[in-house]
Design goal:
Layout (H helix, E strand, L loop, with lengths): L3 H4 E10 L8 E9 L3 E5 L6 H9 L6 E6 L2 E2 L10 E4 L11 H11 L4 H14 L15 H13 L5 E5 L7 H18 L2 E6 L2 H7 L2 E6 L2 E6 L1 H6 L4 H6 L4 E8 L6 E4 L2 E4 L15 E6 L5 E3 L6 E9 L4 E6 L5 E6 L4 H5 L5 E5 L5 E5 L1
Parallel strand pairs: 3-8, 3-9, 6-7, 7-8
Antiparallel strand pairs: 1-2, 1-4, 4-5, 9-10, 11-12, 11-14, 12-13, 14-20, 15-19, 16-17, 16-19, 17-18
Helix pairs in contact: 3-4, 3-5, 4-5
The protein binds adenosine-5'-diphosphate and magnesium ion (MG).
């Protein structure tokens, strides 16, 4: 009884939705979510995040597949029998109602009594730190406050699952940063299993327990923020989460210490167990390295590059480097480092990185 599948709060199995386009908007999505987890659905616009959330909420019926909650497939249940709180990008507050009336809306639908409604509304407003705002109208609130009312309205029904669809994208940058922590705090205090849709990798990295990275309707990878950043499973994930340089290379010496042939130079490759399955000597691969992992030094007979540009961006210096085959790399260096000092535009520099800072993907 201890397998992960048995302890999962939610199991998504082969979940598919087809609007009738070239390919399904959501394509055979499968993963598990534990009770109380804060899961990010991350991917570019159009990758199927909102469609997935709408199937959860019961606003769309899946073309095929299952959403199993506490062991029961709920796809045939109507929205009002799902016990889910939903928050959209547009807060969708009723402008003619007060904050308290907005928050009470779901309770009225559920025919909750007056006294209980009042205490639960007060509790929900306290949770989002809007205790004294019950009698205001939405127009009298800032964007961040309106967003918190929308969250209060979703959590007041004591949902088993909270669904958030790009809830921060209408806020200005400063407020968005604050609200990240507010939302995460509210979720941690209430312990509600949460699906959080975003196209913003920073939001996903800073807020989520695990991130499901989607691309073209499919799941590319699911893992903790550290795992999807450091151990990207696919080139898409490596490039979507953080910045990544990709350089074509050839694998060799796989029976001994794996080597990588790059620009006529031999470099040590990652350990054999970190290489893609099925590679052999001579396999063409793509070597991915993060900008902050690249080190610069005086030319030493190893891999060299020419400095194209050096830009000071505050906490780091960004250096654009050109390899002999015209491939471009971006390095991020500490402004006070020796490497940054060497990076005079036009200069020839040695570049290196640790084998463990490199991901190898089949080309
Ligand atoms: N009502 C619709 N009719 C037809 N196609 C749609 C509809 N809604 C979304 N799509 C398409 O489905 C894909 C996924 O959309 P969506 O789930 O909204 O993506 P995301 O939320 O990740 O931006 C996109 O290609 C989009 O154009
Ligand atoms: Mg969307």
């Amino acid at each position: 009884m201890t397998s992960p599948a048995m302890t999962a709060h939610i199991r998504i199995r082969e979940l598919t939705f087809d609007y009738g386009g070239d390919r399904p908007a959501v394509d055979a999505l499968s993963f598990d979510i534990a009770k109380g987890e804060f899961i990010g659905l991350l991917g570019p616009s159009g990758c199927g995040k909102s469609t997935t959330l709408r199937m959860f909420a019961g606003l769309l019926a899946p073309t095929s597949g299952q959403i199993v909650i506490n062991g029961e497939d709920i796809v045939a249940r109507p929205p009002w029998e799902r016990n889910m709180g939903l928050v959209f990008q547009s807060y969708a507050l009723f402008p003619h109602m007060t904050v308290a009336q907005n928050v009470a809306f779901g309770l009225r639908l559920r025919k909750v009594g007056k006294a209980e409604t009042a205490s639960r509304v007060a509790e929900a407003l306290r949770a989002v730190r809007l205790d004294n705002f019950g009698s205001r109208r939405p127009a009298e609130l800032s964007g961040g406050q309106q967003q918190r009312v929308a969250i209060a309205r979703a959590i007041v029904i004591q949902p088993e699952i909270l669904l958030l669809d790009e809830p921060l994208s209408n806020l200005d940058a400063r407020l968005r940063d604050e609200m990240r922590f507010e939302i995460r705090d509210i979720q941690t205090r209430t312990g509600i299993t949460t699906l959080f849709v975003t196209h913003d990798q920073q939001e996903a990295l800073t807020m989520c327990d695990r991130i499901a990275v989607m691309n073209g309707g499919r799941l590319e990878q699911i893992g903790t923020p550290v795992a999807v950043y450091d151990q990207a499973a696919t080139p898409f994930v490596a490039n979507f989460i953080g910045r990544a340089n990709s350089v074509p290379a050839t694998l060799s010496h796989l029976s001994g210490a794996p080597q990588l042939r790059l620009e006529g130079q031999w470099l040590p490759a990652p350990r054999a167990e970190d290489l893609p399955v099925g590679v052999t000597d001579g396999t063409r691969v793509s070597a991915m390295v993060r900008p902050h992992a690249i080190r610069l030094a005086k030319p030493d007979g190893g891999l060299t590059a020419r400095v194209v540009r050096r830009v000071f961006v505050g906490s780091v210096v960004e250096v654009e480097l050109q390899l002999a085959d015209n491939h471009t790399l971006i390095a991020e260096l500490r402004p006070d480092s020796d490497g940054a000092a060497l990076a005079e535009p036009g200069a020839e520099v040695a570049i290196s990185w640790r084998p463990t800072d490199m991901r190898i993907f089949a080309a």
